[in-house]
Write a structure and sequence with these properties.
Blueprint lengths: L6 E5 L5 H15 L6 H7 L6 H10 L1 E7 L2 E8 L4 E7 L8 H8 L5 E6 L3 H6 L3 E6 L2 E2 L2 E2 L2 E6 L27
Parallel strand pairs: 4-5
Antiparallel strand pairs: 1-2, 2-3, 3-4, 5-9, 6-9, 7-8
């Protein structure tokens, strides 16, 4: 993607499944590789992720994709509870504002996320605070993530820590940012 290429945000379509899964794997295998061991990377971005399950999860969430020059370069989704389940950007477009635009597209309401070590600084720059450390088990391998929350805009009574608990240690799904 060139520096001046436009990024379009749009709703996820069923035909985006393979492209979003590819972005997910590249983001983990390249961008997160410095923060996790090879075993953790392989468990998290496994080639064994079921494409049908992946597509169903994207359709079940409010998923937004970022498209540049005709290809999917990032995506994010939020579940019914306001938890950002995924926010991933292709390493080829890292640090060009794609992740920030995706996050902005989710709105200003109260949000939570289970952020990876790699994603934690990004979410902190956007007003999220760590409320707990998680140690989910994915394909038999322990990972580290952070339960983070962002207070509602204009809600001075919001208290970080009143949100979700750390990821279920038996959760074997390949999600979380």
């Amino acid at each position: 993607m060139s520096e001046d290429a436009r990024v379009e945000l749009r709703a996820y379509l069923p035909e985006d499944a393979a492209a979003t899964l590819a972005v997910f794997r590249r983001a983990i295998r390249v961008t997160a590789a410095g923060d996790y061991t090879p075993a953790q990377i392989e468990a998290w971005a496994s080639d064994d992720i079921d494409g049908g399950d992946w597509a169903a999860r994207r359709l079940a969430s409010a998923t937004v994709v970022a498209v540049a020059e005709g290809r999917v370069v990032g995506f994010s989704d939020v579940d019914d509870s306001g938890c950002i389940d995924m926010l991933f950007v292709d390493p080829a477009v890292a640090r060009r504002g794609v992740a920030s635009r995706l996050l902005e597209s989710l709105g200003d309401g109260p949000r939570s996320v289970h952020a990876s070590r790699t994603a934690r600084p990004f979410f902190e720059r956007h007003g999220f605070v760590v409320v707990a450390e998680g140690r989910p088990i994915t394909r038999g391998v322990e990972l580290v993530n952070y339960v983070m929350e962002r207070p509602a805009v204009g809600n001075s009574g919001s208290v970080p820590g009143d949100g979700p608990s750390p990821a279920d240690p038996d959760d074997d799904s390949p999600h979380r940012t």
